[in-house]
Each structure stands twice: as C-alpha cells, then as structure tokens.
Design brief:
alpha+beta; four-stranded antiparallel sheet; globular; 89 residues
Amino acid sequence: MFVIMVYDVNIKRAAKVLKVSRRYRSWVQNSVFEGEITPGKLKLLKRELGKTIDEAEDSVLFYIWHFKNYACLECLGMNKGLIDENGLI
C-alpha cells in the first residue's frame, strides 16, 4: 500500500516523531512522509508513534492508497525531498 503521513506535534516531540518516521518512510516536506509500506510495518509505525505523541495535543494523519496508480502528485514551486529511494518522483 502507498501511504502519505502528515503530523502536527508539539515542538518538544517533533524530533522524536521525525526520527521514528524516517525509519519507515521517505521524507517529502516538513512533517510529511510518503511511500510504499506493508500493513505490518504500518502497524509498527503507528505503535511507535502512539508511544511518542501526546494524543491530547498532537495529531498524525495517514492517507492510505491500496493501489498507488490511483494517486497523482502535482507540485507547485520547489520540490522538497520528492525523490524516493529509487530516484523517482
């Protein structure tokens, strides 16, 4: 499946959330990650983030596509990290 993850967390936890997220997906822009992920890895990512964030104050959103060919990316302005691990946009 293809996932876009965005987060809005307190600055005290931002570095930890960034570190966890980078282990699972590719950084795209500030507080945005994307890429292919297995259901098992997504479950692990959610579990780790759940231990890191304060659910009363922070937010993490997951946009999930089961088939990537249904998604289309368009960028206005500078590409910030849109290159994936295979060198593709």
